[in-house]
Amino acid sequence: MTHTASAPLAPPMHETDRFTGAHMLVRALEAQGVEVVFGYPGGAIMPVYDALPGSTLTHILTRHEQGAAFAADAYARVTGKPGVCLATSGPGGTNLVTGLANAWLDSVPMVAITGQVARPLMGTDAFQEVDIFGITLPIVKHSVILDDPAQIGEVVAEAFAIAASGRPGPVLIDLPKDVAASVTVPANAPYGEPMPLPRADKDALEHAADMIRKARRPLVYAGGGIALGKATTALRRFIARTSIPVVATLKGLGALPTDAPEFLGMLGMHGSKAANLAVQNCDLLICCGARFDDRATGRLEGFAPHARILHMDGDWAEISKLKTADHGLVGDLAHMLNSLHPGALAINDWIDDCAQDKKNHTWPYDAPGDGVYAPALLKDLSQAAGDDLIITCDVGQHQMWAAQHCRFSRPEAHLTSGGLGAMGYGIPAGIGALYAEPDAQVVTITGDGSIMMNLQELATLNRYHLPLKIVLLDNQALGMVRQWQELFFDGNYSEIDLSDNPDFADLARAFGLEAFTVRTQASVPAAIKRLLSSDGPTLMHVRIDPQANVWPLVPPGADNHQMMQEEVTP
Amino acid sequence: MTLNMLLMLDPSHGALLRVLGTIERRGWVVRDMTMRSTDCEERAVRIFAHRKALHAGSAETLMRHLAKLICVREVAQETQTRPVAAATVTALGNRTSSGSQSPYYAIGAV
Ligand SMILES: Cc1ncc(C[n+]2csc(CCOP(=O)(O)OP(=O)(O)O)c2C)c(N)n1
Ligand SMILES: [Mg+2]
């Protein structure tokens, strides 16, 4: 990610009266090219809020700091630029924690700025003092206590560069109130330039090409690193050159368009049968920006048991971390993929086998009965929305159905809390996506459990007239937990019943949204049309079968080919 | 399995906590540790760690994770008694120089 240096900045509004550390902070954000910040004010961050009016920054007031962090995260995923969130000390900071963990586990560039009590009060258990620096140490790429007003410009510049360099991640700046309020001399803010990743050397690339040439059953296993490394085009060209079949992780979806012939689907716990069979049968696994996460691999020892491993990643700590690589390439993924020219490959039989498996195991969409069948609805919705669609997801069965049945034209079209699996991500992520790409058709897929985790952000949609389309798949349960209790805890259902849910359509209307309820499969086409053509924020509340499960499922501790399938009763 | 390391740290806030936290979270137990400041403000930390039973992470993976910390300038594995580097891991994508000028940006660029 690079910005060109911006033009000299207009003086902030208060410059003639007083120029504070907070003004310097705002100026430093402007110098980084920041346009939007998501936040929530409070005591210790008040000097910063005092400096915001008159700046070029647009501040979006979410209704909870977690919403601000998730919105900043989604903004970053779509734009590739660090997302920025602001919160006050104490509870403001602690409310950001889940959002920081989400960005950490999904490698999202983010800069979070928290107010802190004034320096003389730090360490005294002052009002709203918590050690947010200490609390967040394991879930940030880096963090700083900005205790020197003279350092503000440099610290901000470095925070942005660190967040976006190499494997991206969140950076926390903890800003004591007296530093923000201190009167200081106006200065130009420096610009933090992310460091490019090194390029893999020629010999290493040639060795990789040779492995590919020798393979008879090569398979690409694409992960979130494709989007992070801006390697989508490079991957597509590599596949166009070689025709090697591709499987993707949850975060790698969209790296190859869902309907590309080489694409076999998502692998892993809720992956497609064709994808999981290909992994088990391949003789060379070309891991591109993925990390052998347990949701993708199942029992690690049984994962790709016949394959040599070629691991390409931007982060060398991932190479051989979980699965020993026969050959590892570290650095700029796009450069690697562009440089790999293995020549003509003798893999036609393998390509045919994979295509046959894909054909044999297509998803069935002809569910019996009048009720709404969620997979069919999601497939039709994403097809109707076209290539401008960005889907943001919450967590649960609906998230897995979205991953399985929606079509994604690019990785940025699928925003999901992959590593953390945080319920509550969907709606604030939709807000962030709409600021990142105001012309996109942004749809949030949520569940009746998840929506309640950040329901307050419906007020944010209304306040800023954001045309987010929300599809609420209501199974009156914490469905994913219910499914596991059914399958792995002998049907001992414990605390998963949500049959006392509020009337979600009424609730959405109370927040100022358009809302309607869908109960039958027959009414789905008209409902999709209504949803996608509505002007403002809209909630489509869909009643689905409370007993429906996500299939197939690789049970915990099993190999990926040992998938459980739905038992069809004649 | 044991691991004897020498780390060069920035004198930044929380550097030691980050290092110790990373070692413990990644499945190792710190058995012994000494620290001294060097002339150029760095802190040299010698750590002797033991891998917890059942934990899969290798010494090399741990050193790579440590090298990724922004506050870590260098990690070297040492033999048991003498401070001879057997393998040196310099932070990749982290630092290109150890001077006071940040490697990330040029001051006054705007
Ligand atoms: C913040 C948080 N708490 C708990 C969980 C554990 N969890 C995973 S899925 C799930 C159920 C989600 O219910 P709902 O949103 O209704 O989705 P459904 O599975 O019914 O589609 C729960 C509780 C989680 N992932 N995140
Ligand atoms: Mg539910």
TrEMBL record, chain A:
Keyword terms of this UniProt record: Amino-acid biosynthesis, Branched-chain amino acid biosynthesis, Magnesium, Metal-binding, Thiamine pyrophosphate, Transferase
Keyword Chaperone (UniProt): no
CDD domains linked: TPP_AHAS (cd02015), TPP_PYR_POX_like (cd07035)
Pathway annotation: Amino-acid biosynthesis; L-isoleucine biosynthesis; L-isoleucine from 2-oxobutanoate: step 1/4; Amino-acid biosynthesis; L-valine biosynthesis; L-valine from pyruvate: step 1/4
Domain Thiamine pyrophosphate enzyme TPP-binding: 394-542
Transmembrane is among the record's keywords: no
Catalyzed reactions per annotation: 2 pyruvate + H(+) = (2S)-2-acetolactate + CO2
Domain Thiamine pyrophosphate enzyme N-terminal TPP-binding: 20-133
Annotated Thiamine pyrophosphate enzyme central domain residues: 205-340
InterPro entries: Acetolactate_synth_lsu (IPR012846), AHAS_TPP (IPR039368), DHS-like_NAD/FAD-binding_dom (IPR029035), THDP-binding (IPR029061), Thiamin_PyroP_enz_cen_dom (IPR012000), Thiamin_PyroP_enz_TPP-bd_dom (IPR012001), TPP-bd_CS (IPR000399), TPP_enz (IPR045229)
Cofactor: thiamine diphosphate; Mg(2+)
First-tier enzyme category under EC: transferase
Co-factor remark: Binds 1 thiamine pyrophosphate per subunit.
E.C. designation(s): 2.2.1.6
Record Pfam families: TPP_enzyme_C (PF02775), TPP_enzyme_M (PF00205), TPP_enzyme_N (PF02776)
Family statement: Belongs to the TPP enzyme family.
Name by which UniProt lists this protein: Acetolactate synthase
Protein's organism: Iodidimonas muriae
Top-level taxonomy: Bacteria, Pseudomonadati, Pseudomonadota, Alphaproteobacteria, Iodidimonadales
From TrEMBL, chain B:
InterPro entries: ACT-like_dom_sf (IPR045865)
Record protein name field: Acetolactate synthase
Lineage, top ranks: Bacteria, Pseudomonadati, Pseudomonadota, Alphaproteobacteria, Iodidimonadales
Pfam families, A to Z: ACT_5
UniProt cross-references to Gene3D superfamilies, sorted A to Z: 3.30.70.260
